[in-house]
């Protein structure tokens, strides 16, 4: 990973040694809300300049404004890029805009994920399953390819893929999504081997986190759902964001090819579905 290059007049943010991201540029996909938005906010707080993507121009613009206001930083620290992670053209535009605007791309967080298929796989709509894999796996690889060619091959960097505990253990209910996240976990390992030592590639596997994306998994029964977790609560976007910020920092300089669970101890109980 490249070394920090503090900008003139910008004080380094406080935090654990080795976690300062001042001078680095990050791209977080699918970050207009939820986990992606929390990750962008955390990277911004650690000193990075951050680009966020979302399919809807209005949503990503509003999210960027919220990040700037919450962090109390200049608007030049946050870039909003309307982009569909499943589109080759949109991915290329997004990466190019980051490099053109910030002059570098040190951190890539593949957060975008979709899940339009639930239940019994023999009855699943194959077109929907293809779309899940195209966005969750192929789209993530597409962003890595572009980031590698645009900046990271020569200058180094760090990639974090947002996977899921559903990629580590069967759920029955979100089977196609889980299969795509299992593929993303394996992709993470392959990329870590192939892109090292210049680029570190890791994954994070959350359990149920309280976001709009996961509402169907806990709405109306949050207390009951939380009881199966040793921590007796569901995840928060900030739980994932803190881990991602650590993994892209110098403090995690000898960690690559790993999938780190952030699941409140759920898999330690032997349960999931």
Could you explain the architecture of this structure?
The protein has seven helices and seven strands. The chain is an alpha/beta fold and 273 residues long. The protein has a single domain, classed as Rossmann fold (3-Layer(aba) Sandwich). It has a seven-stranded parallel beta sheet with strand order 3-2-1-4-5-6-7, sandwiched between helices. Helix 2 (57-71) links the parallel strand 2 and strand 3 (78-82). Helix 1 (34-45) packs parallel to helix 2 (57-71), helix 3 (88-102) runs parallel beside helix 4 (126-155) and helix 4 packs parallel to helix 5. InterPro entries: NAD(P)-bd_dom_sf, Sc_DH/Rdtase_CS, SDR_fam. Keywords: Oxidoreductase.
Q: Please report the total strand number as a whole number.
A: 7
Terminal CA distance: 38 Å
Number of alpha- plus pi-helical segments: 7
| CATH fold-level topology | Rossmann fold
The CATH class label is Alpha Beta
Main beta-sheet annotation: 7 strands, parallel
Query: Superfamily at the CATH H level?
Result: NAD(P)-binding Rossmann-like Domain
Report the helical percentage: 25-40%
Radius of gyration: 18 Å
pLDDT < 50 stretches: 1-12
CATH A-level architecture: 3-Layer(aba) Sandwich
Shape: globular
Helix/strand order = EHEHEHEHEHEHHE
Mean pLDDT: 91
For the largest sheet, list the strands in their spatial order.
3-2-1-4-5-6-7
* Beta-strand content estimate: 5-15%
